[in-house]
Fold:
Amino acid sequence: MSESLAIVTEGLSKIYGSGNTEVVAMRDASVEVKHGEVVALLGPSGSGKSTFLTAVGLINPPTTGRVLINGEVVMDGPRAMTSLRRFRRREIGYVFQKSNLIPFLSAVENVQIVMEINGSGAAEGRRRALDLLEELGVRDRADNLPSMLSGGQQQRVAVARALANHPSIILADEPTAALDSSRGRQVMELFAQVAHDHGAGVIVVTHDQRALDVFDTLYEMEDGLIGRAEHPEGKRVKY
Amino acid sequence: MNLAAKDIRHNVGRFGLTTIGIGMLLMVVMGMGGIYRGIEADATLLIDEVGADIWVVQKDTRGPFAEISRVPSNLLYRLEAVQGLSNAREFVFHTVQREHDGRALRIAIIGLSWPRDKGAWLVLTEGRPLLQNHYEMIADESLGLRLGEKVQLAKESYEVVGITSSMMSAAGDGLGFVTVADAQAIQFDTSGEALRLERAARKIRGEDSEIGANMPILLDQANRPSMEIPALSRPQISAVMASVEAGADIDQVMENLSGWSDVSVFTRQGQRDLLLKGSVEKVRQQIGLFRILLTIIAAIIMALILYTLTLDKIHTIALLKLVGAPNSKILGLIMQESLFIGVLGYGIAYLLGQRIFPNFPRRVILINDDLVQLGLIVIVISVVASFLGIWKAMRVSPNEALS
Ligand SMILES: Nc1ncnc2c1ncn2[C@@H]1O[C@H](COP(=O)(O)OP(=O)(O)O)[C@@H](O)[C@H]1O
Ligand SMILES: [Mg+2]
Structure:
């Protein structure tokens, strides 16, 4: 499994606006992420990281280039080649900078809803949701509404939600910004564990220099251009 | 997991207030229909309750309800002689407005044909029918009179001996039943001074006439009561009503009576039509148009409320799309909330209406057909109103979950 490619992007570019207001946010981004590989995406703010991540996540179509998930061409330029919603539902887990929880659902329900959308039963969904919350250390807040949780707790619920469906790829955009460094590291290690144990391909946009050793590969973005970065510990990627 | 139920529970106050508001609006729509039914029922109530098959009224009038009718009281005996008719009765109907206990009391007086008719056909909530041919009255509860209370009308005071409920004239005034003689006494009441003046005038008219000059003794008669002077007509009545005998053909009877050139004849249905096609028809159209307007307004308000409720949930909807929820899940969320507001609002309208409508001065009648019809309209409104919100929701991009 770890030899197959979870994510492939071929020459992705994104142009926002047109004419005078045109912004080239991403150019010719070609990246491969294997199943079981954890990738960090670094780069200054405004360099196009979120643009790249949302293009891979099938929520922000690229202007040109292709996105392949598990070997299947999903986006060809701005055109969807298949049901994006089905792909998002089955294959992708998202975590964003701001926790994106549904305000009228409790913590456990926020995780459960994703499994329910995928057709699992209520009891089974709840059990797995509670297990995930346990793993992330927020089991005791399972029945609280998001407004009753701290930013860090909300973020951990969001991580639990991203993992709920056993997705084949996980996309996280600065997921640890609201966490203290030990919790932040814990979340990164959890991503790595999901990648290594379950063969998911993981891309994490992060600024947190302290947790970089968790990642297999580092990419860096600048002015819309993406490239391999030197690993600080000289850790060599296995392929 | 039912998202609509969770959202509603999370925003109870907001949904509650919205639903109460919609409920009040629906109550007005419901009440409008009830007011029309009330007017319709009041208009034809007397005709239906009295149960006469045939009404004989002044020639070419549409009396005695839609307009004034005057016929001589001896018409009764002519009708009794008609083949196929029975139970001919005098009918006197007029409305009085008097002061009673310091308030204006409007009574639609009905004269009952004593001794044949003592009001035994009336459904009494209290008391009894008339037992004597003078000074007793059966009053409708809407008049606000109590059993045993005395009402001063003309020169006499009338004791309330029985109480009916919901007996109204077409104009909405409560009915008071007395004997025909009393009804006439009330209608043609003349003061002592007016009587003296009339008698003096008779005498002068007599003296000026040839008969008076030839037979001065006749002039002494002028001082006697009108009733006792054969040359003066008896007080007139409003109409005569009669029943068609079992086995007799009402069309044949009508045919025979149509030859009478001094009166006009209506069947019971004819009388109902006169009332329904007259003033009630205009009221019906008026209220009908008002109901349609209110229904449209309710629909627009609901659509706007649902639209704003959807706007508040844009982020949630984007998130649901992000995690791949099918459109049916999102559509269901909005439509269920819409139906919740509509159906619960309808329930509130019904419960509130049942409490409030009985206090209205005129009857508000909620009939099942109307309630079912409004219920269906509410469901249609709820569904249609949610379209605007659904349209908005369908255009939300999952990208918006990130903002
Ligand atoms: N929706 C948008 N419309 C126009 N410009 C955008 C939009 N989103 C991002 N940009 C621009 O694209 C560039 C890259 O943005 P982004 O991908 O958010 O960078 P990062 O995540 O690395 O901070 C920035 O210059 C930003 O202003
Ligand atoms: Mg960003």
Remarks:
- The two ends of chain B are 26 Å apart (CA to CA).
